[in-house]
Amino acid sequence: MSDTTGSSPFLERPMSPESTQRHAVSLKYRMNAMQNEFEIEKLSLQRELLTLDKKYRSNLDELEKALSDTKYLYETNTGLESKVRALEEQLSELKTTQDTQNFRLRQRLAEKERDVEQLQSESRSKVSEFENKYQNSKIESESSKSLLRRYEEEIESQNQQIKELQSAAARRDDEIASLKASRVVMAHHNYSTEELTELTTLNNLLEEQVKFSKTLEKANLEQANELKKLRVSQDSYQFLLSENERLKAKQEQQGSLERQMQDLELENINLQSQLSFWNSFNATKDENSKTRPEEVVKEWTILKHENLGLVNTNSKLQLDINNVKVLNDELALERNQLLEINKNYETSILNLKKLNYEIEQQKLLSFEECRILRKQLDDILPLENHHEDHNKYDSGSLGDLVENYKNKTEDLTNELKRLNEELMNRGDAMPSSKKRKTSDDIALNYSQRLNEFQLENVDLNRKLAASLETISMLEAKIAKLQQLDQKKLRIMQLRDNPFSKDQLVKRKQLDLLLKENQDLLAKRSFSPENSVPRSLYDRLEFDIKQLESEIFKLNKKTARLREVFNRKSLEFIEVVNSLLGFKMEFQSDGKVKMISCYKPEKYLVADLHHNSLKSNLQSEIDSWDALLEEFVMKRGQMPGFLASVTLQLWEKQQKRPN
Q1: How far apart, in whole angstroms, are the C-alpha atoms of residue 560 and residue 103?
Q2: Angle of the 193-279 helix axis to the 498-522 helix axis, nearest 10
Q3: Is the pLDDT of residue 472 over 70?
Q4: CA-CA distance, 37 to 175, in Å (whole number)?
Q5: Residues contacting 182, CB < 8 A, separation 6+
Q6: Which of 75, 138, 230, 334 has the greatest count of CB atoms below 10 A from its CB?
């Protein structure tokens, strides 16, 4: 303590026993107040210490929970890694089985290709054979044409001869009739031998001519029959030519159908490969048994549900990992905060200990001071009865006492400071290094585990991406299988739709064409009668029915479109009349007649081809020429002219009395 700041007031002026007693009471009161304040501060510091201890323990519990969560995540991560390894092994096994199946299917495909080449060679040979037959039939038809022409010429010549003979026979008949008449006239006359011989010769000649005419008629009938046969054969030849052309077109279509069949066979082979790939999952069955598409779809649904479960678990794990990362960051921040709080807590504890120790020392010092003061007061009280002459001596003794008191208090304060410094040095020696070591070890272990978790997370993400790619590939293959499954498509389609109808018509037409082709090929040599296969008639009847149905549909469509057009045109005219005030009537030669709704008996006729306008509204509108000059001639605004005309007509209608 300094000399000016002593705890005793005796340095300023001497005090009476009453004042010293009052001063002792005040000091006692101050000591009680300081003791109470010390107790209050001690309780508050204890309360703060308890709260800090609770926070520290709760943070330690949260840290332990986070460590247990990370441990659980690590264990789940190991379990997922084992599952991923098992899936990788299964995938490798599937790849090996798929490779073997692909090798077998390639062998089958090579065999099928050889079969297809053999079939193509056979079809080429058949086509060449049909072409040779066609050429032969063509040559035969040409020869039959030439023979037919020759027969026609002969028939014409014979017809000419028959006509001449018929005319000669008619003349002879006339002569015979005349002779008979003359014979009747000359019945009673005597004839000479020469006339009789002439008559006999004439009769013989007539009989020969009659026989010759009969033979000619018979030959003519035979030639007419042959001509009919030749015409029938010509008609059949023309029919065969048309059928041959149709068969060629069908053969070309058959070539496209063969290509489609080859494409379908390739698709079938691909589907069989895919089915064999899916059959590899069914290891319990025999090798020869094939898995049906329903079982494949069922397995696919199971795998899809498992995949969804794995994806959900993966997403949950991803969320947990993200939450762990966030929790890790929060724990790192909280750890730093806890370290700061712990450090502040330790410093506050040390400060509180130091303050507590100082307060205890001050308490002891105040007790010691009070004891000294009481002793001095006891020594001072007997001196009250002395005379005032001894005041100087008393003041000197009191000054000595005060100096001794000051020296003792300074010694005590120095001793207290030294003890406090030793205590602080001892408290800061061991615990700080030990706590720093434990906190550093915890942080190091935590960072190592975090790095391991991050590496494992990267590996799992890579494996997850690979598994998702395989899943997407399998889903695409299954989608193709579902698209090619006719039963599924039939279930998904409507019973009566345009596509199924078209397919049904095409299938029926193809069946009829195949049947017709078979009948025509089977009937190589036609009978002399004019006959065709029944399949040709059925096919033509089917084509006619299809054309009639198409014509009916087109007529129905045109009627519906005409109705829609008429309805929309009426709506258009009504809308134009209601909005613009004119009723439109489209006339011939590009003319449009516009009738105002305010003056139905008047109209305007616009010629769009000649850009002319005729009207009988001049009498109704006074400024007709001015409006026409202003809007049409100068500005070229026909809508403005019509709007002004409509406005003036409306104003006139409003001014007109009801």
Answers
A1: 60
A2: 130
A3: yes
A4: 184
A5: none
A6: 230
**Mean pLDDT along residues 142-168:** 76
Length of the chain: 658
DSSP secondary structure, 522-564, as one string? H--SPPSS----HHHHHHHHHHHHHHHHHHHHHHHHHHHHHHH
- Please report, as a single letter, which amino acid is at residue 455: L
Residues contacting residue 456 through CB under 8 Å, at least 6 positions apart: 77, 81
Buried b (16+ CB within 10 A) or exposed e, 71-94: eebeeebeebeeebeeeeeeeeee
Q: Which band of pLDDT confidence, cut at 50, 70 and 90, is reported for residue 560?
A: very high
Q: What is the pLDDT of residue 556?
A: 92
Question: Of 156-165, 222-231, 495-504, 519-528, which range is least confident?
Answer: 519-528
Domain map of the chain by residue range? 14-80+292-462, 94-279, 493-555, 581-655
DSSP annotation string for 379-417: HHGGGGGS-GGGHHHHHHHHHHHHHHHHHHHHHHHHHHH
d(CA 112, CA 116): 6
Residue 416: count of CB within 10 angstroms of its CB: 17
The gap from C-alpha 391 to its chain's centroid, in whole angstroms, comes to 116
Say if CB 224 and CB 159 are below 8 A apart: no
Contact between 628 and 606 (Cβ < 8 Å)? no
Task: Please tell us whether the domain made up of 581-655 is placed in CATH 3.30.457.60.
Answer: yes
* 249: enclosing H helix or E strand: helix 193-279
Distance CA 70, CA 505 (A): 69
Of the listed ranges 344-358, 567-581, 601-615, the least confidently predicted one is: 344-358
Average pLDDT value for residue range 356-381: 68
CA distance 387 to 15: 16
Specify the long-range contacts of residues 170-175, CB closer than 8 Å, at least 24 apart: 172/205, 172/206, 172/209, 175/202
- Residue 478 tokens, joined: 């299954």
* Sheet architecture: strand order including 582-586: 582-586, 591-596, 603-607, 612-615
Integer Cα distance of 318 and 218 in angstroms: 109
Strand, helix or coil at 597? coil
Q: How far apart are CA 137 and CA 244, in angstroms?
A: 11
Grade residue 6 by pLDDT with cuts at 50, 70 and 90. Answer: very low
Please give the single-letter amino acid code of residue 384.
Answer: E
Task: Specify whether the CB–CB gap between 531 and 515 falls below 8 A.
Answer: no
Q: Which single residue is written with the structure tokens 């991560």?
A: 77
Give the DSSP letter string of 74-128: HHHHHHHHHHHHHHHHHHHHHHHHHHHHHHHHHHHHHHHHHHHHHHHHHHHHHHH
Give the 3-state secondary structure of residue 614.
Answer: strand
Direct distance between the N- and C-terminal alpha carbons of the chain, in angstroms, rounded to an integer:
122
| Beta-sheet strands, E only, within 563-615 | 582-586, 591-596, 603-607, 612-615
pLDDT tens track for 209-226: 777 777 777 877 777 777
Q: How far apart (Å, rounded) are the C-alpha atoms in residues 566 and 562?
A: 6
Name the phi and psi angles at 604, rounded to 5. -130, 140
User: Measured at the alpha carbon of residue 470, what is the angle toward residues 464 and 474, in degrees to the nearest 5?
Assistant: 140
Query: CA-to-CA distance for 377 and 8, rounded, in angstroms?
Result: 12
